[in-house]
């Protein structure tokens, strides 16, 4: 692999893990604070403590990367800052301001065109908070709607109802910067589970036919709103989520749609949105290039360095991933160690991934997108031998897969939307072929 002399840092992720309650599908590192008044009064103390530690982490990481190792990493004007969670909009705006000011004072360059995104949940912000965001130059909102249906929201253990969703959208429409929703992304979840035999009295009975009908209504609603961006995620049952850990589907309480039904829903969703939106990534739709986000695509590149701060956050630096502890207490202990020894950061990263893993990450990320992969990037980074091995496998796959597009022995992409459904399979076959060839060459 041909390494560059220096690696640029142009994107930052800030994890604010606090939420009112944990949704049943959520497997992310979050810290639920509750919804009653007493919980809220205690929350300010929690916020102040978390703010103290995340600021310390930013300072110590800056010392470690750009003073001790400035021959490897250099700062460039920031393309994006992303506040994710959790529910970042629960965090006091004054504390958000402190974080942004610290990023500036530590020598990161926030420009007029830096995209600053705030994830928001309905019911956690009002007009005054949105105005504060505007003053902080936050210029993009990711709104966690998930569904416009009360049954679905309740069964997912979302903290809001449909009315709260509509009120949140109206707040944005009444604002100065977000009134046209062009710089707003709406999150929706498709392929919801059936709930017909739940013993939990808080869950409402719903069958798969009704789930599909509700999904059609959700799509119709979001088309009418015309936000600049839509993210649509197919519900997955991940370890660490309530759906997985509590019920584990042992009693058939929450059966998901079959793979065939889920695939049909994916295609129908594309057909519904494609007259207005560009389906530019498996889970993402954008109205125009002007609404294209800057932050998420760095993950799809597969090999771009970025910094992440906060509990459970994960940075990628020179092909190594650095993930913070996933509980508040352990995260604070981590930062204490970092204060004593800034190199503790680099000492606790995952091992540098091997060439196969790196290429697999690049393939998986870029084939998720409509743009696909320029294999010249592989050739320039990993050499002609590996490039030829991959091209050879692609030629074999072209004989049996109608969903691959390969142009000029260089550009590889998947047909949209059907090709997106086989993305994992395509990547797995190329990766397996590469593994066999690399091992065979090593053993000669």
TrEMBL record:
The Radical SAM core domain covers which part of the protein? 4-276
SMART domains given for it?
Elp3
One Pfam family named in its UniProt record: Radical_SAM
Q: Which GO terms describe its cellular component?
A: cytoplasm
Q: Which GO terms describe its molecular function?
A: 4 iron, 4 sulfur cluster binding; coproporphyrinogen oxidase activity
UniProt xrefs under InterPro entries: Coproporphyrinogen-III_oxidase, Elp3/MiaA/NifB-like_rSAM, HemW-like, rSAM, rSAM_horseshoe, rSAM_sf
Recorded hits in SUPFAM superfamilies, A to Z, give:
Radical SAM enzymes
Tree of life domain: Eukaryota
- Which GO biological process annotations does it have? porphyrin-containing compound biosynthetic process
The family this protein is said to belong to: Belongs to the anaerobic coproporphyrinogen-III oxidase family. HemW subfamily.
Q: What does the function comment of this entry state? A: May be a heme chaperone, appears to bind heme. Homologous bacterial proteins do not have oxygen-independent coproporphyrinogen-III oxidase activity. Binds 1 [4Fe-4S] cluster. The cluster is coordinated with 3 cysteines and an exchangeable S-adenosyl-L-methionine.
- Name listed for the protein in its UniProt record: Radical S-adenosyl methionine domain-containing protein 1, mitochondrial
Source species, please? Answer: Tetrahymena thermophila (strain SB210)
């Amino acid at each position: 692999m041909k390494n560059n002399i220096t690696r640029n840092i142009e994107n930052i992720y800030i994890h604010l893990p606090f939420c009112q309650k944990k949704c049943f599908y959520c497997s992310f590192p979050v810290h639920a604070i509750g919804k009653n008044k007493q919980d809220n009064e205690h929350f300010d103390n929690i916020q102040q403590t978390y703010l103290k530690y995340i600021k310390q982490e930013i300072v110590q990481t800056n010392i470690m990367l750009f003073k001790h190792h400035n021959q490897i990493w250099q700062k460039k004007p920031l393309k994006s800052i992303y506040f994710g969670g959790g529910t970042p909009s629960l965090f006091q705006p004054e504390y958000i301001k402190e974080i942004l000011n610290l990023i500036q004072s530590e020598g990161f360059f926030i420009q007029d065109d830096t995209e600053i995104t705030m994830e928001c949940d309905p019911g956690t912000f009002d007009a005054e908070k949105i105005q504060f965001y505007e003053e902080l130059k936050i210029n993009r909102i990711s709104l966690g709607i998930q569904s416009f249906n009360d049954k679905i929201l309740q069964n997912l253990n979302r903290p809001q109802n449909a009315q709260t969703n509509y009120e949140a959208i109206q707040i944005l429409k009444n604002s100065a910067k977000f009134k046209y929703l062009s710089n707003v992304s709406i999150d929706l979840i498709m392929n919801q589970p059936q709930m017909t035999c739940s013993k939990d009295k808080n869950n409402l009975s719903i069958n798969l036919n009704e789930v599909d009908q509700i999904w059609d209504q959700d799509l119709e609603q979001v088309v009418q709103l015309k936000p600049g961006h839509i993210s649509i995620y197919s519900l997955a049952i991940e370890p660490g989520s309530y759906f997985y850990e509590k019920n584990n589907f042992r009693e058939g309480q929450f059966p998901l749609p079959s793979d065939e039904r889920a695939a049909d829903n994916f295609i129908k969703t594309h057909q519904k949105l494609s007259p207005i939106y560009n389906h530019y990534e498996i889970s993402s739709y954008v109205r125009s290039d002007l609404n294209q986000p800057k932050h998420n695509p760095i993950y799809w590149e597969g090999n771009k360095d970025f910094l992440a701060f906060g509990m459970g956050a994960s940075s990628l630096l020179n092909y190594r991933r650095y993930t913070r502890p996933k509980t508040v207490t352990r995260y604070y202990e981590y930062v204490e160690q970092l204060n004593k020894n800034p190199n503790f950061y680099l000492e606790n990263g995952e091992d540098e991934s091997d060439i196969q893993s790196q290429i697999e990450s690049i393939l998986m990320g870029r084939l998720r997108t409509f743009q696909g992969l320029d294999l010249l990037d592989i050739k320039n980074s990993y050499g002609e031998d590996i490039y030829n091995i991959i091209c050879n496998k692609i030629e074999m796959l072209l004989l049996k897969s109608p969903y691959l597009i390969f142009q000029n022995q260089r550009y590889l992409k998947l047909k949209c939307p059907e090709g997106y459904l086989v993305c994992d399979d395509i990547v797995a076959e190329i990766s397996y072929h590469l593994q066999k060839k690399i091992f065979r060459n090593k053993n000669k």
